[in-house]
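Need a sequence for this fold. Nothing fancy.
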C-alpha cells in the first residue's frame, strides 16, 4: 500500500494566489454596496437628528408668548418667552361680587386676583415662580421683557393667584386685555447655534427668569442641553407679517460628517402674535 501523498509547496502557493485573486474580485464587487449602506445609514442618522431637533423647536415656538421672539444679528441665536398655559381674569368692569377679586389695574397694592372659570390643572397648572403676562404687544408699556406687564406668581390657592408686584397699576397708559386674557410664562428659552467646519453644536438653554431686551448678547442663558452636533451651518429668521397679528420663524440646519455626507433641513413656523 502506497503512503498518503500531501500537497507540494507549489500547489499551496497556487491555491493562495488563486484565493487572493478571487477575494480581491469579491471585494471589488462588495465595496460599493457596503459603502452605500454605510453612507445611507449615516445620512439617515443625521436626518433623524435634524428632524427631531426642528420638530422640538417647532413645538416650543408655538408656545412662545406673543411678540416675545428675538433673533440675533448674526442669525445664530433665537430667544423667546415660553408659556405653559393661560386663562381669563376677573375684570373690575364686570362688577364682580365681593367674593371674587378682579385683576386690578389700580392701585398697585392689590396683588391678588381670581381666575374666570376653573384653574388649569396637571402640567398646565399655574405654580409659584411662574409669571403672569397680560396683553404683551412687545413695546412699552406692555412689554414683558421690560417687566411692564408681567409679574411673578408667589402663591396659588384654587382660582386665586397672588403676585409679587402689580406692574399693571403703574402702566401709562393702562393696557388691559380686551378679552381679559393672560398667559402663564415659565421662563426664557434661548437656542444657540455654534456651527463649525469640524462639527459645531445647537443647544437649548432655559432659565425661569425673564431675560431683557439686551439678553441676546449676555450669556449664560440658563441651563444648556445639547440638541444636535455635527452642525456646520444654521440660521434663524423672524418676520412679522404686515397687517396681521402673526409672524413667521424660519430655521435652517445643516449637519455634516467627515466623510463628506451632509444633510440640510429648513422649516418655517407660523406664530400667532395676538396678545
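Here you go.
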Amino acid at each position: 500500500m502506497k503512503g498518503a501523498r500531501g500537497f507540494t509547496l507549489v500547489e499551496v502557493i497556487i491555491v493562495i494566489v488563486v484565493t487572493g485573486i478571487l477575494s480581491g474580485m469579491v471585494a471589488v464587487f462588495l465595496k460599493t454596496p457596503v459603502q452605500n449602506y454605510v453612507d445611507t445609514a449615516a445620512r439617515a442618522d443625521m436626518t433623524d437628528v435634524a428632524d427631531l431637533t426642528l420638530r422640538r423647536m417647532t413645538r416650543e415656538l408655538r408656545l412662545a408668548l406673543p411678540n416675545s421672539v428675538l433673533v440675533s444679528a448674526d442669525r445664530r441665536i433665537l430667544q423667546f418667552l415660553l408659556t405653559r398655559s393661560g386663562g381669563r381674569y376677573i375684570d373690575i368692569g364686570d362688577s364682580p361680587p365681593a367674593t371674587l377679586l378682579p385683576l386690578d389695574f389700580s392701585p398697585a397694592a392689590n396683588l391678588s386676583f381670581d381666575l374666570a372659570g376653573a384653574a388649569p390643572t396637571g402640567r398646565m397648572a399655574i405654580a409659584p415662580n411662574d409669571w403672569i403676562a397680560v396683553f404683551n404687544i412687545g413695546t412699552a408699556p406692555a412689554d414683558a421683557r421690560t417687566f411692564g406687564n408681567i409679574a411673578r406668581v408667589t402663591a396659588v390657592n384654587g382660582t386665586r393667584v397672588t403676585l409679587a408686584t402689580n406692574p399693571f397699576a403703574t402702566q401709562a397708559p393702562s393696557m388691559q386685555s380686551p378679552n381679559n386674557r393672560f398667559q402663564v410664562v415659565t421662563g426664557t428659552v434661548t437656542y444657540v447655534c455654534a456651527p463649525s467646519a469640524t462639527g459645531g453644536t445647537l443647544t437649548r438653554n432655559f432659565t425661569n427668569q425673564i431675560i431683557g431686551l439686551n439678553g441676546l448678547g449676555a450669556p449664560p442663558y440658563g441651563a444648556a442641553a445639547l440638541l444636535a452636533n455635527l452642525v456646520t451651518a444654521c440660521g434663524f429668521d423672524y418676520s412679522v407679517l404686515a397687517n396681521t397679528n402673526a409672524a413667521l420663524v424660519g430655521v435652517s440646519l445643516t449637519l455634516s460628517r467627515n466623510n463628506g455626507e451632509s444633510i440640510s433641513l429648513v422649516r418655517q413656523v407660523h406664530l400667532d402674535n395676538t396678545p
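For context: Residues 83-186 form one domain.
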